[in-house]
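From the shared-data thread, chain only:
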Amino acid sequence: MKKSLIFIVYLLLISCASNSGVVSIGDDEYFIAKQASTGFPGTGGIKTDALKEAGEFCKAKGKSLDIIDLDENEGPFVLGKYPRVELTFNCE
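Structure, as tokens:
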């Protein structure tokens, strides 16, 4: 029973993470927002994920990634303020 409860709590925490995917915001300009489901991991993992996603998106277009802006929120990560990364980029 205890393992089932832990698994359910784990699933609920995972489901709170958010990922916008690649969003077009203008002439060959794109945006990705990622938020962790808890405050424990910091922004390192989601920043890496956002950069990889943007790089793969540009590579699929036969272009390279050009970062326009990369914002990370700062800790402490408590009371619903979780690590968040916002990446604005274009493909050259």
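The beta strands are 18-19, 23-26, 29-35, 65-72, 84-91.
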